[in-house]
Design brief:
The chain has helices at residues 13-22, 44-60, 71-84, 97-103, 115-119, 121-130, 142-149, 156-166, 188-194, 205-218, 233-236, 254-271; strands at residues 2-7, 27-32, 63-68, 90-92, 108-113, 136-140, 174-179, 200-203, 241-246, 249-250. It is of the alpha/beta class and 273 residues long. It has two domains: 2-93 and 205-271, Rossmann fold; 97-203, Rossmann fold (3-Layer(aba) Sandwich). The strands form two sheets. Strands 4-3-1-2-9-10 form a six-stranded mixed β-sheet, sandwiched between helices. A four-stranded parallel β-sheet has the order 6-5-7-8.
Length: 273
């Protein structure tokens, strides 16, 4: 059986990459809903419809669990889809606000995400629940998804965009930067160059993969014990079995598959930052 992982675009590869490193013996289906990317600027109704279509696809492709590797889709659709597909475990990702606040030492926390995630009640309730000292600020970065989908990860345009969006924030007062969209992980090196050294970057990918492993283990469907965290992508990449889809169309072209491999290579570099 397969593990299904999906996102509106290539951002979800962040989570697939982490899952493959820890569970190299599993079979994965990765689904990028490129016909509808980005989700973060769509209506709630549109996102729910898109996610429903993807979950139905995963159920039809022998998936034992599905991971929503999209903060926007999780916030908008996860609860409803879990009720609709009660027999299929659906694991969602959410911005790592709770651990960020816990590790902030009383300094400020900046959460960057898509517009829909920022304005969705689910994130606001999460912040209200864990942010007793009112340390958390939310910032929309819709442009980063567009840069990522174009494969533009390091450029003057990316740097200028982030500088403008961060203008007005006294970054010396911050301790934690929460990457609240899986697309944003591709830009860790640029974020690192713009942030004061005391700022720690955190995202929800590792926590989500660990939750996936717990769910599979409880259902006795985890093939093997997880690998060590320090396993390198180059060591296991030939053993990992992944089928890639774009809005239901399987990617079989050698050049496109090479592009997927290059994205994994970049994510391996970003994983070490």
């Amino acid at each position: 059986m397969n593990i299904g992982i999906f996102d509106s675009g290539i951002g979800g590869l962040t989570l697939l990459h982490q899952a493959a490193v820890l569970m190299p013996h599993e079979k994965f289906i990765f689904y990028a809903d490129t016909d509808h990317v980005p989700y973060g600027t769509k209506t709630r109704e549109q996102v729910i419809s898109y996610v429903n279509e993807v979950i139905r696809f995963m159920a039809d492709h022998d998936c034992k669990a599905v991971v929503i590797a999209c903060n926007t889709a999780t916030a908008v659709a996860a609860e409803q889809l879990r009720s609709q597909y009660a027999s299929l475990p659906i694991i969602g990702i959410e911005p790592a606000v709770k651990p960020a606040v816990a590790e902030s030492g009383g300094k400020r926390v900046l959460v960057v995400a898509t517009p829909l995630t920022v304005h969705e009640r689910k994130l606001q309730k999460l912040v209200e629940r864990v942010d007793d000292e009112h340390l958390v600020d939310l910032l929309e970065l819709p442009g980063l998804v567009e840069f990522a989908e174009r494969g533009e990860f390091v450029s003057d345009r990316v740097t200028t965009y982030l500088q403008k969006r961060l203008m007005g924030y006294e970054l010396d007062k911050y301790r934690e930067l929460v990457l609240g969209c899986t697309h944003f992980n591709y830009f860790k090196d640029t974020f690192r160059g713009l942030m004061p050294p005391q700022i720690h970057m955190i995202d929800g990918s590792l926590g989500t993969v660990r939750q996936l492993m717990r769910v599979l283990d409880e259902r006795h469907e985890l093939l093997e014990a997880p690998a060590e965290m320090d396993v390198q992508w180059q060591q296991i990449r030939h053993d990992v079995c992944v089928r890639y889809f774009e809005s239901g169309r399987e990617i079989t072209d050698a050049a496109r598959l090479r592009e997927m491999e290059q994205l994994h290579e970049r994510l391996e570099l970003m994983r070490k930052i």
